[in-house]
Amino acid sequence: MLEELIIEKGLSYLNSSRKLRETDSLNSLRQLYLANDYFVKAMLENNINVRHRGYVFYKETQQEAWEIVSNLSRDVGQHVAGESDDWTDKTVVKSGYTFDDIIGYDYVKEKFRVHIIYPRTKKMPFKIKANNTVLMYGPPGCGKSFFASALSNEIGEGTMYSIDASNILSKYYGESSRNISMIFDMLKGNENNVLFIDEIDALSMKRDFSDPAANRTISTLLLQIDGIDKTDINLIAATNKPDLIDEAIMNRFNSSLYIPPPDKSSKEFIFDLEVKRQLEGHTPDLDIGKIASHMEDKELEGSRFSGRDIRKIVTNTLEIASIDYVVNGSFSIDNKLFYQMIDEVVPSLSKKMLKKYEEFDL
Known about the structure:
Radius of gyration: 24 Å
Strand order of the largest sheet: 2-3-4-1-5
Shape: elongated
Number of strands: 5
Distance between the termini: 35 Å
Structural class: alpha/beta
Number of helices: 15
């Protein structure tokens, strides 16, 4: 039967991989990835016996690939030791904020406390034996990265590293997989590390069997996520496109947290934070509560302002004030000026977009 031939093809690549294991690790890994693709195909067949065999061999290839990748990553890490130090220095998250600075989002904060913070900062009578993996999803500009930066000051002695998934991708065949393996391997040597991957959908879009390079990247990411239960690494990821993520990757996350647009209290916090940040100490006489209410009045027919929209409103308003100062020698920053700019900015989060996120079934 055709389904059995899929298994046999996968086994032929698996056997080739094992023969090359000692003499050519990189080529052995390539053979494993090819075998893995066939076993994944088998897992999608209607025949239950074929699906079961595909799953069993898929788990075998995962374990064997994990061992090869770990060895190769150690070799690469030793070869580029200076380069790795530079990488870790550049990606350490440094922030002056904590969860106390985030208004609302209590459910999200509590999930982070249970999965990431308490195991590091509290003497717990038991330990949950599960990968501490959290996926944040939601519309763009609503604070997923800000949550990660605030979390960096909540994890005790741990260090948080942040990478953008798009920076891992490479046009060269196999390079993206090696980048993923090297990054995880660099973090395994230190205790209490947290890795934040932004825009993880760029690395993990649903598999297309006509694109072996993308499939290899997904397989490598799966292996690394499966392997972090043997380390002290915690993984946090964020995406604006949860519907595009491969199902196998999605299932690796213990918690999936929806980060919605800011409510009125959160709007006040973001607005106040951005005004203080941009004016660097100058404090205009503003009624922030009324400004937030004016924003909500403009959110007609279900559209919503994002945090990014609020920052844009503040920036555009201060640009008007600076032009006024240059032209007229004076300026005024008051509620009326902000109302005018709010009326001109269209909320970027449409009702249709938000409905897609709210109905997304994780």
